[in-house]
Amino acid sequence: MSTFIAAFVFLLLITAFSTHVFGLPANWLVILILWIWDLLNPEVSIPLQTYLLFLGFSFLGECIEFGLQTVGAKKYGASRSGNWGAIAGAIFGAIFGAPFLLGLGALVGAVVGAYFGCLGIELLNKRPVHEAKQAAWGAMLGKVLGLSVKIGIGAVLLVHSFDVLF
Predict the structure, then answer these.
(1) Residue 113's closest CA among 93, 143, 99?
(2) CB neighbours (10 Å) of residue 107?
(3) Minimal CA–CA distance to 133: which of 143, 147, 155, 118?
(4) What pTM does this model have?
(5) CA within 20 to 30 Å of 21's CA: 8, 146, 149, 156, which one?
(6) Could you report the per-residue pLDDT of 28-64, keeping only the tens digit for each?
């Protein structure tokens, strides 16, 4: 029965991991599910080191996501306010895009939002359209790379969760 429950929990973890495409905090959901499983399963105890490692990598993934977006925008000439516009645009894009494409709109919305958030602020700063578009392109590329790294970290957490469960 214990193996059956562990398999069920792993299916929950896969489901949590798949919420990356909806712009949800999937890596944090993986940690939460493991913690609940640990509390409800007195036979197994997940070491504190594992939780700290998972928390550290999840936090690192969030930092890398926004850091790469910022670096991408800066590399392509965005101003500080353009970077903040890209971050705000990504957040609002994910929120407003969530109802579309069966939830996949959140991912698309975050990427497109980063572009238009940076573009809008750069144009408000009276930057030439070509430069504003270039900076926005950098913010969008950085967002895509950052999301890719964060999802990759989530995959590592998922694989390690398998080892923890079985």
Answers:
(1) 93
(2) 21
(3) 118
(4) 0.84
(5) 8
(6) 999 999 999 888 887 778 889 999 999 999 999 999 9
